[in-house]
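Issue: ligand-bound run for uridine-5'-diphosphate - logging full I/O for the record.

Environment: standard queue, default settings, no custom constraints.

Inputs:
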Amino acid sequence: MKILVTGGAGYIGSVTVERLADDGHTVVVFDNLERGHREAVDPRARLIVGDLRNPDAILDAMRAVRPDAVIHFAALALVGESMEQPELYFHNNVVGGFHLAEAMRKVGVRRIIFSSTCATYGIPDQVPITEDTPQRPANPYGESKLQFERMLRWYEIIHKLEPVFLRYFNACGATERLGEDHDPETHLIPNVLRVALGQSDAVPIFGHDYPTPDGTCIRDYIHVLDLADAHVRALETPHLGPYNLGNGQGFSVLEVIETARAVTGHPIPTRIAPRRLGDPPVLVADATRARTQLGWTPKCPDLHTIVQDAWNWHRAHPHGYAGSKRR
Ligand code: UDP
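Outputs:
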């Protein structure tokens, strides 16, 4: 198939592009390189540098490529940032999404695999979270993703788009070549590994008085390779989801840090910091639907493996992609 991947220079996008190219698909990446990295784009893929906030840029790309399907990663994805600058999230994720949907409608491209998120559920009444859990986002990031889900639903009904909704839990891990490199980095595992690399003194623990066994937030950490696998399956499924993508097992912030100590052999000091606005206490997936309808089974569910893979990448790329050239 010919696939247009928005955000294919980003973390999950670049790993999925690598997988698509391995599978023999023709891949065109559309990315503004604002937060993604040219070096992360697989050399087998063509890169179009463009911004979804510009309707002409994505329409021109859609017309030029005429893909069989779109995989849409390009978005801002930081809970904390969204609580300070919600406007960025509505502009990039909702307005940008609208331009993408319009370009698809105008060119007649139907299938879109959309990177949605567990943040659309907000603070759930019960865990694990099924896809039927009410969506009540607790931050503008989750809200922006939910708004685009809803927009796509109407495009499905009225314009016959075929949106497949993938709601990721916490993406992590790395491949040999590709890993997580955000600036600023706010995610837990890379922040923990930065301390192990000696690039930071201590990991801030954002809140230790949550209603969880050790007082720190619990998340469902899912390997980026398993996420990539779900996208490949979503390309051809007759179902549209939505699908939760997680391991179904939750780990607290302290458990992640403990695992990283075991993997790295570094003591990894911590310091207690205030809660981060917009953080739900517990997010754990029930991914039964993805398992049954997509035949998806996470191959790297073990937290030790996930942290080990991330550690291997961060050790090999202590300054991220900076300085490396696109091969
Ligand atoms: N967290 C933390 N210290 C950090 C980074 C994150 O305590 O340096 C916490 C954060 O408050 C959340 C969990 O780790 O409870 C996972 O955060 P992350 O940003 O990795 O993912 P999110 O769940 O926000 O998408």
